[in-house]
Amino acid sequence: MPCNSRTIDILLLRGVVAAIFAVGILSRCANSVTLQGGPKDTLPPKPLAMKPSWGMVNFNDKRIYIEFDEYVKLKDQQKEFFTSPMMGKPPVLTIRGRGIQIDIKDTLTPNTTYAFDFGGSIQDNNEGNPLSDFRYLFSTGPEIDSMMMSGYAVDAYTRDSIPGAFVYFYEAARDTLPEGYDSLLFKRTPDAVAKAKNNGIFIAQNLKPVPYRVYVVEDKNNNHIYDPGDDRVAFADSLFNPATLGDFTIRFDTSRKYFVAEPQSYFRLFTDKKFTRQFLSKKNRPLQSKVELIFGAPGPQIDSLSLEGIDPARIIRDYSRQRDTLTLWLATPPAELPDTIRGSITYLKHDSINVLQPVSEKLALFWKAFEGKKREREKEKDETPVNPFKVTVETSSSLNPEKNIPMVFEYPLERMDSAAISLIRTADNKRFRVKFSLLQDTSNIRRWTVRAPWAADQKYRLEIPAGALENIRGEQNDTLRSEFTVVSPDKYATIVLDITGKTPESEYVLQILGQGNRLIQERAHTRTGRHTFMYLDPGTVRIRVVEDINANGKWDEGDLIHHIQPERVEIYAPEVGKEEIPTKANWEVEYSIDMNTLFAPITIEEIVLQLQAREQLRITRMLKALQEHKLRPGRQPSSSGSGSGGLMGGATIPTSIPGMNR
């Protein structure tokens, strides 16, 4: 017999009521004995009775009481507990005897299904065993909304699952959005709410069979409000009606201790930096000749900036890579810099209604010469003066030719005598001068790189004589020498990517990732052709590809207000579900990547396959960890440490329920 959601709800409701009171009767009929020790309690508390009863219709009470089979406590209530729909005044939860009292402070909306989701906040008082997924349900109308929908939330850039994100549902019939402009998240509270589990999967329950606008929000500070610029967000390009989405499977994950499902929707979260409020958040002077102005949003519009007593032509402006921090390097002799530098800045700042307005602020930048006093004390102990000029050569005795020789200076350079610098290669006890170039980093003016035609297994010596370098403070270097050997490519792996773009003009960013999404190598502005990545350490890597739509050489976030999705990022997998690629010493492997295939429209079937592959990898790793950490001799395995309150308020869902929305 085909089952619809209402039929399933009724069956589950009957089952949970019977189970609750069966447990209560059995517990009251049991003989009382004095316990003499025994195994540790690992079972979660069980609900015995609810007043008003669970699933009540035409609800008009202000107080709810849920009784359990043991004393309970509430933990992380602010983080775990939420209501669907949201309430202007949240309910007040209080422990009373062996139960929880819920006092409703807000006015309930007529003909609305309400769910109080406790997450994992209910625990037994002694052992802290959580009752997972417990929900109290009622309706102020004659029926309970019973539609369901599932989805998957990931970070748009890393592709990692987003745990605990909130899913907001807005009935489309209630709101008409202007063309190309979406401010719904700021206008009113959602009509229904769900929350993703730690694996990024959410199961939204008790929805209506109507079209919804759906948003996913990462609530970092648990205030149940979307904070643009801080919280990641995602939005659906189209409406979702749970009644027309078809079947999906739901099951209880015994290892994670919560329900999971095959997703019917897919959401890519991003930080909407375009909507971040602009203001001057910090004014620092970490060094005597360095000032930092940190803004709330990237790209501040500065109309005027002045520092008293300092020639504007001697102020070097340097923006951070994110362009939210402006560093001012003061190219002035230290003796001419006061302890407190005063000045002013005029820039565009967001006002209370989020409109940019010009404002002027005073600057008072103080610096204590602790370092200078320390150096004076060192001079008193040692007649040898300490050279304040600082440089770090970022290389070891073994040089990776892909990285060349980076040098980072404490202050920007004002003068460099490159003719005085020498790079010597030593072979067969003979010395050879090597031509080289010195290039300044476009995103860090204090970083320079020595590049040369490096030869494998050869020894090199970089010599910078005293006085060849001078920074903006007039400080000059002592003699610098660095010796190293260029490593042989035989000790590393090579990956060749044969790219076929969507069009000859299409551009992509290719990235080689190590463990923990660590970026190893990157190629921007890549088009159709062969691209070689050398000097990869033996192990495993992943290949991440950014579809660079605007050809700016980087990944771009989305724009919620103007409904622009973030640029797509995909992980290339030579085989379905196998994203990790082995790398071996003296080993070259080539992969052909067709971008029409990699960036084809996303299908739920592909998402399901990816999830299945990741789940299999997780289980494999978990089993391996169990084998490596076997139980100590004589120790007995314990039973499950947590349980489930069930999707419907205490019921246990079967392993698989096809056709949940039929």
Overall description:
- It is a single chain.
- A seven-stranded mixed sheet has the order 13-12-15-16-19-11-14, with no helix packed on it.
- It folds into five domains: 1-28 and 40-144 and 630-662, Sandwich (Immunoglobulin-like); 145-270, Immunoglobulin-like (Sandwich), CATH 2.60.40; 275-369, Immunoglobulin-like (Sandwich); 387-490, Immunoglobulin-like, CATH 2.60.40; 492-556 and 568-609, Immunoglobulins (Immunoglobulin-like), CATH 2.60.40.
- A hairpin with a 5-residue loop joins strand 23 and strand 24.
- The chain has 662 residues and is mainly beta.
- It has six helices and 46 strands.
- Residues 1-36, 636-642 and 648-662 have low confidence and may be disordered.
- The radius of gyration is 32 Å and the shape is globular.
Q: In summary, what is this structure?
A:
The chain is mainly beta.
Strand order of the largest sheet: 13-12-15-16-19-11-14
Q: Could you say what the CATH topology of the largest domain is called?
A: Immunoglobulin-like
The N- and C-terminal alpha carbons lie at a distance of 12 Å
Biggest sheet details: 7 strands, mixed
Q: How helix-rich are the residues, as a percent range? A: 10-25%
Q: Rg to the nearest angstrom?
A: 32 Å
